Amino acid sequence: MLRARSQSSLYEQEAKFVQDRITGVEKHFAELCTTFAAFTRKAARLRDKNDELAKVIQTYADSEIINRSLSAGLVNFSATLSVIGDYRDAEVQRLDAKIIVPLSQYATICKHARDDVKNTFAARDRELTRRRHLDKVRERNPRNRQMISQAESELTKASIEVSRVVKGLEEQIDSFERRKLHDLKSILLDFVTIELSFHTKALELLTKAYQDIAIIDEIKDIEVK
């Protein structure tokens, strides 16, 4: 009896440990998802302001009929900003697909993992119920071998079920941990890659934007009558 109770307690401790692991992953992944989503919204707003700035500069260029080099410089500058805006849009789309979507899926993944833990607790409870039933039968009907044998058989089945469920839980949590590690590593690497890709291209385009403005000929434009 003591050994059986110890085994049941061991199952409960293991299930509790797994449950705490799942809760931790769910909490941290939810926080990551919320923060990355806010980051992406900020990037989207910056993209929109970038497009607005490009339009304002283009409008100014179109209205400038005296300072020709200024007008040409603004046209080129506006076009370069528009291209940067396209890359910002690609950045936002990739952040949503590669970062936000995978992180948001962990609410469902953790729910399914928690259901597996609940099944373990339920199997453990059924085993305890069968064990208490067997104890009562032995106490009240110590000479009724048929009732005792039936209660022992039911307990054996419940114990086998607990072992099966616990083994399945161990496999599930191993799979859960491996997936968590792989997904988090992939998500963070994707984030760095997305940002590197954007900023590398942005640096190239901003260099061109600098040149677009630098070539404006102040002296020539001021001489135009």
From TrEMBL:
Compartmental location: Cell projection, Cilium; Cytoplasm, Cytoskeleton
Q: Which InterPro entries match?
A: AH/BAR_dom_sf, BAR_CBAR1/2, CBAR/FAM92
Q: What protein family does this chain belong to?
A: Belongs to the CIBAR family.
> Gene3D superfamilies in the record, alphabetically?
Arfaptin homology (AH) domain/BAR domain (1.20.1270.60)
Q: What is this protein called?
A: Protein FAM92A1
Q: Which UniProt keywords apply?
A: Cell projection, Cilium biogenesis/degradation, Cytoplasm, Cytoskeleton
Organism field:
Cardiocondyla obscurior
GO CC, one annotated term: ciliary basal body
The record, for PANTHER family, names: CBY1-INTERACTING BAR DOMAIN-CONTAINING PROTEIN HOMOLOG (PTHR21223)
Q: Which domain of life is it from?
A: Eukaryota
One GO term under biological process is: cilium assembly
